[in-house]
Amino acid sequence: MTNTIAVRIEALREELRRENLFAFIFPTTDPHNSEYTADHWKGREWISGFSGSAGTAVVTLNSAALWTDSRYFIAAAQQLEGSEFQLMRERIAGTPTIAEWLGRECDPGAEVALDGMCSSASTVKELIDDLRKQGGITLRTNFDVLQRIWTNRPAIPTAPIVPQPLEYAGEDVTSKLTRIRQALRQVHTDGMLMASLDDIAWTLNLRGADVHCNPVFVSYLLISTRSSTLFVDEAKLTSAARQQLQQYGISIAPYGGVKEALRHYPDYNILADPDEVSYTLMQAIKTGLAGITQRQGVVVTLASPVPAMKAVKTQAEQRGFRQAMIRDGVALVRFLRWLKPAVAAGGQTEMSIDRHLTALRAEQPLYRGLSFDTIAAYQAHGAIVHYEGTPDTDAPLRPEGLLLLDSGAQYVDGTTDITRTIALGPVTDEQCRIYTLVLKAHIQLQLLRFPDGASGTQLDAIARRPLWHAGLNFLHGTGHGVGAYLNVHEGPHQIRMEYRPAPLHAGMTVTDEPGIYLEGQFGVRIENVLLIQPAMETDFGSFLQFETLTLCPIDTEPLDVSLLTPDELLWLNDYHQLVYDRLAPHLDAPDRDWLRIATQPVS
Amino acid sequence: MTNTIAVRIEALREELRRENLFAFIFPTTDPHNSEYTADHWKGREWISGFSGSAGTAVVTLNSAALWTDSRYFIAAAQQLEGSEFQLMRERIAGTPTIAEWLGRECDPGAEVALDGMCSSASTVKELIDDLRKQGGITLRTNFDVLQRIWTNRPAIPTAPIVPQPLEYAGEDVTSKLTRIRQALRQVHTDGMLMASLDDIAWTLNLRGADVHCNPVFVSYLLISTRSSTLFVDEAKLTSAARQQLQQYGISIAPYGGVKEALRHYPDYNILADPDEVSYTLMQAIKTGLAGITQRQGVVVTLASPVPAMKAVKTQAEQRGFRQAMIRDGVALVRFLRWLKPAVAAGGQTEMSIDRHLTALRAEQPLYRGLSFDTIAAYQAHGAIVHYEGTPDTDAPLRPEGLLLLDSGAQYVDGTTDITRTIALGPVTDEQCRIYTLVLKAHIQLQLLRFPDGASGTQLDAIARRPLWHAGLNFLHGTGHGVGAYLNVHEGPHQIRMEYRPAPLHAGMTVTDEPGIYLEGQFGVRIENVLLIQPAMETDFGSFLQFETLTLCPIDTEPLDVSLLTPDELLWLNDYHQLVYDRLAPHLDAPDRDWLRIATQPVS
Lengths: 603, 603
Fold this sequence. Notes:
- Two copies of one chain form a homodimer.
- By secondary structure, chain A is of the alpha+beta class.
- Helix content of chain A is 36%, strand content 19%.
- In chain A, helix 5 packs across helix 12 and helix 14 (315-345) crosses helix 15.
- Chains A and B meet through strand 21, helix 17 and strand 27 of A and strand 21, helix 17 and strand 27 of B.
């Protein structure tokens, strides 16, 4: 691999010299600012060999470096070993920013490049400003070097696009477009360019399979006052999808035609979210409307209204989630009943149990795949927050200690995301203590009532409080939105320490997933998906509460019940009763008996 | 009064017509962006008759309106009654902004004015932008209309300036200036213009008495690499103050000379905080440095580093706070012992008990005055968050129901701010329930441990949680910093729902003051001043906790003990033990006996 990387870097440098460029920057995204991308856009992985889900590679004429965050410090160091790439640990004291590093590596006034189609307008704008401060480095954005050097580059995917039935979506396309246009008018805008793939799938009640674990399809949606056009590879449309688009009056145009179409945009104002739309398309929009300045064309660079609409689930979507959680719960119960005896019998590893769980889920009706790659992390691996088992690291499981299992599936009626930490046998007192504190954190958030419109930033400390009290903390978010048979990570709301002002409202899904990670020892995380529900109306306004969607027992073996408050204990026993009541009718006798024991009240 | 206001408005309109202006805007601040101002700058009150601490008056050729927030809706409506002023309720649906209102009142392209010396650069910049969007209204900023029309305008105050002894300040001026210059160098700046009066008093270890309840003096401090100049009315300096300035090499210049001095600023870069420095002075600085562009003069518009430095109290200041709290506690115990019998005996009112409490505080050594006007609010008045009793509203106290008493004093060694809600006799079950929930909220925050550097926005929900759970909420902040013999409201940190990113660190003071207000019925607030202290160092970083500074019993009469958790009960009993232990040695026998009963454990 190292040799392959060296060859690729040399091919790149040849292009850099030809184009009189000093460096090329490879971020981890695509023309749609996706968190997870199709292989076609995995240029950062291709040039560096680093496969994590976040990071930026920069190659200059003389050097190479890769920036990534703490989740990937260990994995990146391993994958970059032997290559020219230097690992840059983000948010660690002394790590330069990309611009600072380029400022040291380049001559003043040098030109560097990235593909402006594959970075958001706001990211590129910030980078241009930062580079200017580094001795006036300039940025070229119209050069997709990968097209020249990436031989055998995977094609843009061509998975079929199918309708998402109205019985699961709960709102038809006309209604969604009407609401979007209303929201646009409120900010004095006639239309918008939608680039986010899950927003497009949601708006059009269509699903695809272009991105691993994300049922989306590569496309743009251009909405104006009178028309809507989907820019997509027409061959991917099943006849049902095509018929649905026709029914709702959506025009179809080639994916590659969006830039040209923006030049002929028929209205005066267009909204383009600079965190969503690529720099190149933003420039195209500005140029397009500049051609109609006699009509006072204006590009409104505001946040898209769609994520906040998509975040509030319809009644049908809420029903779907509850149904999907039953099927997911059945698969999990079968898995958990099997797990401990299988580990005791020997021969199981992190990857083997992952395969078994996936097989059990795949048996369930309406299953469409995983919603993300399973994290099955035994003991010390559990302390690596985004551990991804590989044949090299795959650990054999022994009947002792803690297994952290974070997994989820896509069903046509809902998306699941669950973490359980399971005692495979005897655990230490410290493991019990940490496990119980994490469970307290998890329960504290579930018990909360809060005012309609509060932000996740405001709620975050409620979960962390029992951990803080013991001098513990975790650096990831406490919760994220979950799509309805869409991406498992969904905005705009999040529950986390950093500032996320998006208001929480009834109908939103959000995970509750505190954790504690003791490096080299073990990790604990406990995660359910919650649905925000109205709690009460008082003179002080509307208050909200959480309904727990996830249905799966929480292991009581590693529990130190003495650390739970009466409220917390009550919640745990009530939750287990709910899990039993909902799942038992769908289980055969041995599974049901196992579940009865797993959910019996503790005190 | 109404007639007086009409006369003043007419005088103003005459000037508007003469200057070809459409309207004049009167905000509530001064050239130092003070929260509370000297009478000289109370132009908004003079023109409108509204005396609250926040609000903006706007008078056009044909109309007049006053914007204020929910704290003052009732008081403002009363004070504006019979005048031309229309009350604009801020943050209520349908209330226009000042710019929107002017957009409707003015012809397009009209010119309006405010005194650019009396609004911060950021406020004026925002207003200019907002007005431009309203049909291109322009803003004139170089016209202090009050100098022409306000006959008998109070002079700029001339209270004597005295040194704050090092035994209380704990850090000398050289050390503070060195640290300020270090902070400035970190943002590549040579000096700064300090306009905030409490920042100047803190930096120079001086105190004045120019502003009611705030021991500050009207001045500017200009710091450059090699020199520091205090712009102040020299006659106000006592010889001790003058000597201290000389000792630390601080030059003295006339208050009015700051604008001219900025033209001759000797260094290349100057920091001017746009939220602190007035628009007019910011323009003067920019013009000044523009004259030296051959030297690349730059105005760095960043937040001042001083508030964050001042917020962390020295060991001497922390000692001083503890001492001042003992004396304040002694006065409060004497007051509380007197209160209930006095009310039962009859003849007491909100204002009479305020006078008595103030007299008891004034007997204490090192007393220098109140830190804010006492809020003594009986029953329904307690639901008016910023109630200020007047002879018209002054309510007689009866031996029943709840008295909300929010008060504080300035001592040379510390500033106090305390709220107690007191049962003057029998209370209702609902009063007990609300009182206990507010106490729970208060205690929950005090019990918290949290990571060093967390923001007040993150911690706020910890206090609100028990209230939210019952469908209750309050709209003010949960806590603010408190100065060391300085302003009772001090930044940069706050604990509140809105986003306040300033990190919390050990050594900072902060209040803990949740409340609940039932309109027309009663209000409850319970407030202590806390000091942030280190709690522990772990693998997960530094954790902080609160030390309670305020020493005064919390009334247990209106308490429903059954609503408290064991932790909360333990805190309350421990706190009362602390109050007794600290205050008893300073009390005579009758007060001590009363305190023993007031602090006896509940269960």
